[in-house]
Amino acid sequence: MVEHQQQQKIKRAPRANGFYVRMKLLPTTKNGGRLVPQLEKKSFFYRYCKWVLWLSLSLYFFSSFLISNHNEQQNKPTTSLSTTHFSTFASRALFESAAINNTTQQGALFDGMKIYVYDLPPKYNTDWLKNERCSTHLFASEVAIHRALLTSDALTVDPYEADFFFVPVYVSCNFSTINGFPAIGHARSLIASAIDYVRVEYPFWDRSHGADHVFVAAHDFGSCFHTMEDVAISDGIPGFLKNSILLQTFGVKHHHPCQEVENVVIPPYVSPEKVRATLEKSPITGRRDIFAFFRGKMEVHPKNISGRFYSKRVRTELWRKYNGDRRFYLQRHRFAGYQSEIARSKFCLCPLGWAPWSPRLVESVALGCVPVIIADGIRLPFDDVVPWAEISVNVAEKDVGKLAEILEHVAATNLTSIQKNLRDPRVRGALLFSDRVHEGDATWNVLSALTAKLARSHRRSRVSRQ
């Protein structure tokens, strides 16, 4: 709903402060008489100059007002969600990219697709932005996509012309006070509440049973909303979401209950600003003195304190086999500047954790390090756009003990070719979410994927029936 701003009437005081031109048409003497004739010619010159000055200033201020007013109308938000909610985000294009600017007619490229973004009460989204981590952590695609859609050419303020309805609910910003990780136990109830609100305020959910509504589920097991796979499978996808479209980081090639819904696999969020800052210090073509790199959780014993096998023992095997091997730079502790280590590495190990996907996939590609994917059956984001086979190495979980030999073979054969493919800015940009939609970036690819689902558009199906 667009908030209408009331214009305030400005009362002009008799002698208001500000710039003004005060003129006398003809000069006079002190006692009110006319000046002598020889001065009247001079007076006429002064009068002429004053009139020219007055006219010039009037035209200047009037044109300035028109330009200013036009710019304000052009920049006016299309929804009541003010852009000040996102004032902490830099507004810049993808680095090192020939991205098309905002004059690109995205709507035409996406078959005229239009998306309406619901204006939900702030408790569902922008209230969470009080915590700065909400917009920067690995699940922050829910914020990034919302922000980008609000300035997209695909956005419509008329819900009756929309093909899809985006429901902006941030469920990943409830950080645990114990370990600092996102706690998503409230996700189901928060989304259910948002749907109830939408159903009361708008008629569009019920007419399609949510089939043309889009949500983000950027969590370990996506729309199952739990970090442990067994619990996620047991809970399943909430019934109120089963007809909708889910943008989720989780995806596998085999049957899995947590992807039994219309879905698009998207990349986890990695800050493009941090990547760009890293590349400014360590260019993508720079020296890479680390052969194989991994920093992250690697348990010495295969079963952790929860009684579960983390990473299906893959990371434990990596540590046992290659800790001490001079070719492998393995670190178990956190380091804020670890992206600089990625920029120095030839191969970056991307083993599964609790779930098969990892932000290391995006960071490795963005920083020019060949991702070594160790996660059987993973569905990679935007696999119809990103040439994964040409920019990465896949290693089966059971072959992790042969990893050194596999990487040595790649280094001796086609490493140079893979690195060349990684240097293509279009490949790197495809996995990064920018503040505004740019051609080929992550939100652009989300829009492209939604274009393939236009058969779910209630508006189009209604038109085709007429």
TrEMBL record:
<dbReference type="Pfam" id="PF03016">
    <property type="entry name" value="Exostosin_GT47"/>
</dbReference>
<keyword id="KW-0735">Signal-anchor</keyword>
<keyword id="KW-0333">Golgi apparatus</keyword>
<feature type="transmembrane region" description="Helical">
    <location>
        <begin position="51"/>
        <end position="68"/>
    </location>
</feature>
<dbReference type="InterPro" id="IPR040911">
    <property type="entry name" value="Exostosin_GT47"/>
</dbReference>
<dbReference type="GO" id="GO:0000139">
    <property type="term" value="C:Golgi membrane"/>
</dbReference>
<keyword id="KW-0328">Glycosyltransferase</keyword>
<dbReference type="GO" id="GO:0010417">
    <property type="term" value="P:glucuronoxylan biosynthetic process"/>
</dbReference>
<keyword id="KW-1133">Transmembrane helix</keyword>
<feature type="domain" description="Exostosin GT47">
    <location>
        <begin position="112"/>
        <end position="409"/>
    </location>
</feature>
<protein>
    <submittedName>
        <fullName>Glucuronoxylan glucuronosyltransferase IRX7</fullName>
    </submittedName>
</protein>
<keyword id="KW-0808">Transferase</keyword>
<dbReference type="GO" id="GO:0016757">
    <property type="term" value="F:glycosyltransferase activity"/>
</dbReference>
<dbReference type="InterPro" id="IPR004263">
    <property type="entry name" value="Exostosin"/>
</dbReference>
<keyword id="KW-0472">Membrane</keyword>
<keyword id="KW-0812">Transmembrane</keyword>
<comment type="similarity">
    <text>Belongs to the glycosyltransferase 47 family.</text>
</comment>
